[in-house]
Amino acid sequence: MNPAPAAAVPRLHPKARLQRDEVRGRDVLLYPEGLVTLNPTGAEILGLCDGVRSVADIVAALEQRYGASGLVQDVMSFLDGLGAKGLVIYGR
Amino acid sequence: MDAKPLWLLAELTYKCPLQCPYCSNPLDFAGSRFKHELTTEEWSRVFREAQALGVLQLGLSGGEPLLRPDLESLVATAQQLGLYTSLITSAHRLTQDRLAALKRAGLDHVQISVQAADAELSDRIAGTRAYRDKLAAYHFAKELGFPLTVNVVLHRENLHQVEALIRLAESLGAERIELANTQFYGWAFHNRDALMPTKAQLDAAWQVVLRERARLGSRLEIVWVLPDYHEQFPKPCMGGWGRAYMTVTPAGEVWPCQAAGGITTLTFENVRDRSLEWIWHQSDAFNRFRGEAWMPEPCRSCARRTVDFGGCRCQAFLVAGDAALTDPVCSLAPHRHVIDAAVTQVERAAAARVEPTALTYRAAPASRALAAKG
Description:
Strand order of the largest sheet of chain B: 7-6-5-4-3-2-1-8-9
Number of helices of chain A: 3
Low-confidence stretches of chain A: none
Largest interface: A-B, 19 and 23 residues
Number of helices of chain B: 15
Strand order of the largest sheet of chain A: 2-3-4
Oligomer: heterodimer
Low-confidence stretches of chain B: none
């Protein structure tokens, strides 16, 4: 699968659900017969995948929130990883 | 050891309109052990206790879970707890209204079985006319926006249809197809000689899977459940005994997997008597094969013990007569010869074109007759 361009709009596939795992104190992405454990940053990125923001918008939001720069590669590789599993799709 | 369960399979009832001869339910499903089904309130408590224990994934299965009139209410309870709910169904007599009600209750995912790619063979294997309802239900599921898994148990009589089955799942817009080679427990063990495919059949089907995976990519996930009698090493059954998974039976017994109740040397606790937390952490049945201390040789000193956990305890019990032995499927196991003999017998019979013995269909009278015979 090709990496998505920065202008692409990522969203969770409807089969996937972001869920707080209270017992283990973490966030997880649940889907049919599986789950992905998320670190706090991953959960935050997915929280911003609202079907409106583009990858570039998400990067900008995170960079502003943390006063950081150069997050674009991290965000894209995270989303591509979930895209390869069919858990993140692109398009409004 | 930080073992918290992630998965709960709730077998809501063992009643089922289908009679598939490889059913994973116990042979004695019609007996008194499973007769007094848990109430709505009892299941709700089980779900609450499971969530508090760490469960995130809930399978609603059976038998046929649609036969529980309180299914919508149980789904709603699970949804409020944040559990990801999968309905595992034959879809017999499933209407669009019922499925829509389940959607409103919060059901996340639907898995519908089919017995073969065409009505004639599918209905013959199911022992009842079910194919038409299934096709309709697949369409209802997609129209309602459910992620859909098509599940097929594979065996000698339908392995040649793997390509047609994948094409069916593709045409339905399913997200997943589970091609589950028959695992020999319960009814499937009873019918083993008639169900077991030849090596040539398995190899041909596997080539189709490889080709179709390359063609479909992430559009359709093709799950291939290994035919373990034909493997060199055992499966990592349930990801290890008492590590991530439990089954609750219709009458409330808690098992480390859906076949474990057949291990007659273990005593299983019931949610009517104990909390799920106590059963998971404290019960003898769950602790007996946890970790590595129970392992015999060749597992104990084997590098693969952290990969396959010694394989399947139920298979050791069924085939080798002792649940504490190495899974006899393992090529290093002292009882591998029993597996080899079963495989060889099937190959010889197929080569000589001997008709397999008749299948025993899963039905209450057959269940009672088998139980009476012991």
